[in-house]
Design brief:
With 127 residues, the chain is α+β, with helices and mostly antiparallel strands. It is built from three helices and four strands, in the order E-E-H-H-H-E-E. The protein has a two-stranded antiparallel ribbon. Strands 3-4 form a two-stranded antiparallel sheet. A hairpin with a 4-residue loop joins strand 1 and strand 2 (13-14). The longest helix is centred in the middle third of the chain and has 18 residues, at 38-55. The protein starts with 6 loop residues before the first strand and ends in a 24-residue tail after the last strand.
Length: 127
């Protein structure tokens, strides 16, 4: 028999086993379901933190964060900023082999922001 491990609100206890949700079984299920899409899983669980914060006001932000996100695989070094040429409209994704993704070029060495001074105004006729 397959037990559904879903959160029971407002207590956020698992309806399948009674442990605090996400229970160990649900964590395992979510990791298998999302595979290598760790960013999507983190986003989904961050949304659950927001929902749970309304119901579990007695828990602090640190406790909620640890419970809902602390068990997830550590994120990488951060997102890579990419430029997508002509992104599709309407939220449709292109297959990976069709995506035109390039990395933004690095600025030339030694070229920092330059500041152009404002033009000088003539003082003639001020006195």
């Amino acid at each position: 028999m397959n037990v559904a491990h879903i959160p029971g609100r407002p207590t956020w206890l698992c309806t399948g086993c009674g442990d605090p949700w996400p229970c160990a079984a649900k964590r395992h299920q979510l990791l298998a379901e999302y595979g290598e899409s760790h960013a999507e899983l983190r986003t989904m669980m961050a949304l659950r933190v927001a929902d749970a914060a309304e119901d579990l006001r007695q828990l602090g932000a640190e406790q909620l964060w640890g419970r809902f996100l602390g068990w997830l695989p550590a994120p990488g070094q951060g997102p890579v900023i990419r430029w997508v040429a002509n992104p599709p409209l309407g939220g449709h994704r292109r297959p990976a082999n069709e995506a035109a993704v390039t990395t933004l070029p690095a600025p030339p060495a030694g070229s920092g922001p330059t500041r152009t001074p404002p033009p000088r105004r003539s003082r003639r006729g001020t006195r």
